[in-house]
Amino acid sequence: MADVVQDVVANITENITESSGNETGRIPATPEGMAVAYSSLVIMALLPIFFGSFRSVKHHKEQAESGEQPETMSHKDAAMFPLIASAALFGLYIFFKLFSKEYINLLLTGYFFFLGIFALCHLMSPLISSLVPAAIPNVPFHLRFTKGSGEEQEYLVDYNFTSHDLVCLTCCSVIGAWYIVKKHWIANNLFGIAFAINGVELLHLNKVVTGCILLCGLFVYDIFWVFGTNVMVTVAKSFEAPIKLVFPQDLLERGVAANNFAMLGLGDIVVPGIFIALLLRFDLSLNRNSKFYFYATFIAYFLGLVATIFVMHMFKHAQPALLYLVPACLGTPLSLALIKGDIAAMFQYADHPDELNDDSGDLDENEVFDELDDFTYEDHPEKKEDSKEPSAALPATTTSTKAAIKAKKDK
């Protein structure tokens, strides 16, 4: 009798545990739910690249008109980036293993709260300003924060804004507060999309070669950390910050309270995106009234993303998206440029051709000669007056240096 009672109690306990697990656990994804989730992720990935690319053209023109010194990535920077990213990724992995992820995520949440608000403000300011009622005047403000005085005065902050910008900041702060309190996936995606668009707009690759080096390096990086270890997947699942786009696969069953998410990292959007944006600027430089390479590579990115999702679904394993995106985004424009005869122009194109580029090894003969002349005349001022032609008054060493530079340039 006692054995029977124990069996009944065990069965009841098992049923209660199973029922509780079903209530609190994730609802299995249905084919319809997965289709909605992955379609939404693809759309959310394409929009930042498309709009960010065209915004990058505007930003590039503004830089050229204002004479602003651009910050571009050199070949060395591109080659080192995967190593730096690997160190950062592994460092986060160690942190999550040694310390409680709640404290780390709390710190990161505060950081991305402010970063996300400003990114969203930069994106939404024109729209919100147009919606502000006329009753609210658009009053300009100028914020300055200086260090030192007189000739040693240095501007640490020099920022112009308006009262409409303050309205925009307030609206974006509400979204930020929503993200901090609820960590809701919609707020996460708003910040993530803002980061992606701003990244594609503001991060510029100066040359196609630099983009090829960067993408090839990250191609190896992504494959190693996803297939070779569990580091990438562990960090992605533990890292509660808007550095990834998520969409619930159980949205149809649970609505906005769904929690069974599919995800896509922002790196898989921004890194190919800045290369595609460079191709758009290259298209415009050809003056053909066509955006052939941009649209071709944009479609290739879409197909690569679809291939990533298909393979992931077939093998039921996380896939390094760059494994499919890099061949698509590099192979397509380079192959088409080779067919159309634009390959030389593509590799010679530079966003900022007047900028001295140490990677190219090119020497500006006139600038170097002028420097040599000035240097020589400072040391030998009497010879500048004795000679009508500067080169005749130069010492033999300087003249031979000029000849060597010219010979190198001719080669």
TrEMBL record:
GO cellular component: cytoplasmic side of endoplasmic reticulum membrane; lumenal side of endoplasmic reticulum membrane
Protein name as annotated: Minor histocompatibility antigen H13
Region (Disordered), start-end ranges: 379-411
Location in or out of the cell: Endoplasmic reticulum membrane
Transmembrane segments: 35-57, 78-99, 111-136, 186-205, 212-236, 256-280, 292-315, 321-339
GO molecular function terms noted in the UniProt entry: aspartic endopeptidase activity, intramembrane cleaving
GO biological process, one term: signal peptide processing
Major localization class: endoplasmic reticulum
Stored SMART domains: PSN
Keywords: Endoplasmic reticulum, Hydrolase, Membrane, Transmembrane, Transmembrane helix
Family: Belongs to the peptidase A22B family.
Residue ranges, compositional bias (Basic and acidic residues): 379-389
Signal sequence bounds: none
Membrane topology: Multi-pass membrane protein
Pfam families in the record: Peptidase_A22B (PF04258)
Domain of life per record: Eukaryota
Record's compositionally biased regions (Low complexity): 390-404
